[in-house]
Recover the amino acids of this structure.
């Protein structure tokens, strides 16, 4: 499957938990991974990954986005080759 960038699409802009979850789910599927596989590789629980993908604002996400907002910066996610 080709990446969003290869398709001429823009990177995901992260404004809230929902947009972060959409990006995570997109890239997980693009990698051909199940939630269980990705969670295991990342060292987190599958249920936590599921909450992230469904856009639930975890405390960590809330704090990170609040810090970025106060600094006047935006988070964008795009496919990386690292």
């Amino acid at each position: 499957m080709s990446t969003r960038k290869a398709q001429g699409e823009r990177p995901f802009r992260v404004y809230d938990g929902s947009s972060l979850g959409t990006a995570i789910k997109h890239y997980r599927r693009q990698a051909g991974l199940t939630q269980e596989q990705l969670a295991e590789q990342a060292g987190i629980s599958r249920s936590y990954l599921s909450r992230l993908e469904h856009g639930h604002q975890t405390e960590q996400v809330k704090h990170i986005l609040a810090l970025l907002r106060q600094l006047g910066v935006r988070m964008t996610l795009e496919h990386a080759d690292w």
